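Sequence in, structure out. First:
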Amino acid sequence: MIPPRERLISIEDRIIGARFLWRLPSCLRHPVGPEGARPILRQRLERREADFLALAGCEYGDLERIVGQEGVKGALHTLYRQGVYLVLGEFKVRRAVVRGGATIAADPS
């Protein structure tokens, strides 16, 4: 049984849910079928490594070497083992990023 305290939904989750529901009708009115999705997916897959390198925020040459040797998935595993990762709450800027003795405050800006 889930304790009552853990059943509560945070205000942030409620806001995210409300935004999703608000935008859902527009998405349903303009669905993307297989014909439209294929070129988008193809382009994203072609640019996957370049996009990853642009977003990772590490030294480009080091990441480029790792991605070239191991691919994006292997590079992500390597970065994770080295402590370079975000958990969901950090990614959504709900809590500070804490690694070792360093802390990066949660600041949406």
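Second:
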Amino acid sequence: MSTHRIRELQAPEARERAHELAEILLDCVAGGASVGFMASTSPEQALAFWQRVAAGMAAAERHLLVAEDDAGRLAGTVSLLTDMPPNQPHRGDIAKMLVHRRARRQGLAGALMQAAQDLAAARGLTLLVLDTVTGSEASRVYERAGWQRCGDIPGYALFPDGRPCSTTYYFKALDARKPDGSR
């Protein structure tokens, strides 16, 4: 079993590695994950998505964490969205937590989520929100990590094959750290 390193990418490297990120996204979609894309998503569409993510990173609207294997190949990713309305400066959203099927069942999802929570707390955020397919493997990851379920919305999204799926919303309160790292 390989080991993985979790780290934050900066916008220039995200642009350089957009093809690898697109491969992870397409693999998750091919595996049936409802992550905002349909089975017909082309590599060009996936690449364009990650280029928009890199632009959002450059604009300080989001952070991108990745899991790299021993060979430096990307195996997973999660985004922390921090561009919130003026009345929500304490909150962030978790988005696109993706793990390539070749790297699943190795604890990467949990490690990526913990890194995102740590980054959010270090930035002074005290509340995180996310959504996922009701009853999915991801929902079990979040619940094991102490996320609180808010409720379900039936038929909220579609699986890549077009079938409707229910979405569950979660939140997690954080103990934010001061800029020096203390609590």
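Remark: The domain at 4-173 is CATH 3.40.630.30 (Aminopeptidase).
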